[in-house]
Amino acid sequence: MCSSDLLRRLAQDPLAKPAVGDWVLVGTGRAPRIEAVLPRRTALVRKAAGRRARPQVVVANVDVVVVVTAAGADVNVRRLERYAAAIAESGARPVVVLTKVDLEGDGDVARIQEAWPGARVIAASGLTGTGVAEVRAELTEGVTGALVGSSGVGKSTLVNALVGREVHATAEVRASDLRGRHTTTFRALVPLPGPDGVRGGGGLLVDSPGMRELSAWDADEGVRATFGDVEALLGECRYSDCRHASEPGCAVQAALASGELDPARYAAFQVLLEEQAAQAEAATPEGREAKRRAIKALTRGAKVRAAEKRGRR
């Protein structure tokens, strides 16, 4: 339970709500209550499911976010870009684990790496043990990680392999699409064994249920970090107010025409910016103005950095 002061704050700020991974102050008494949430080192935040534009902290105070995707049809570049933006904004380090390579092979590794250059990509199989040691090496003693991804991609099987015993029930894959069935229904904190196999001697892992959707919240910087190639092009346009449509000297349109820039990637970049703007529309007037300035600064900042590279500043 939360104190009355914290409840009043929650009515004004949804981000103040305690989340998995938070450190909290608990008051003493016959009925202990959460008095305050301590400042977070990192926070993976998304737009909460539903029509209302409000944020939800998925997990807090983790050092690494492990995104799990199954080889084959589950690999969705546009979804991975969303994860990339949200994680870049969170302050945590990204790792992508491509599971079920025993069924589909590891041919998707290069495709994922191209879409997410800053992340380490590990090909793994919880059933055969492929890549499990590499994943465990990312979660050493003193490191807290979070496992995220869609339902049925093999998160529970991977957790069991990391721990060395069954801590989560798993289900057989469907013959129709080789996907597992949803088995994890709540977030759990799992202690991992150390190099000597001692239980709890490694890092900690927050295992989460599958997420049906992920819309990054207040992630202007995360979008910029994820689409650094697009940002660089924005700074090369001839005119400072270029709309990147039919203006002469538009570097974006030139890159699209030459094939340097994938039209689908540029469209995804625009969609993410539009989502950021839509969040602001549902916020207070002050929030809307702040979001407008932040998105405008995305293009302006790109031009400044491009000028610096050319030695103009």
Number of strands: 10
Radius of gyration: 21 Å
**What is the number of helical segments per DSSP (H or I, 4+ residues)?**
11
Average pLDDT reading: 82
What are the secondary-structure elements, in order, as H or E? HEEEEEHEHHEHEHEEHHHHH
How would you describe the shape?
Answer: flat
Helix content: 25-40%
Uncertain spans, ≥5 residues at pLDDT below 50?
171-182
- Sheet with most strands: 6 strands, mixed
- Computed structural class: alpha/beta
What this model shows, in words?
The protein is α/β, with parallel strands linked by helices and 313 residues long. It is built from eleven helices and ten strands. The chain has helices at 4-12, 77-90, 101-104, 109-115, 132-137, 155-163, 220-226, 228-234, 251-258, 263-281, 285-309; strands at 24-26, 34-37, 43-47, 55-60, 64-70, 93-99, 120-123, 144-149, 188-191, 204-207. The strands form three sheets. The protein has a six-stranded mixed sheet, with helices on both faces. A two-stranded antiparallel sheet has the order 1-2. Strands 3-4 form a two-stranded antiparallel sheet. A hairpin with a 7-residue loop joins strand 3 (43-47) and strand 4 (55-60). Helix 2 packs across helix 7, helix 7 (220-226) packs across helix 8 and helix 8 crosses helix 11. It is flat. The N and C termini lie far apart (55 Å).
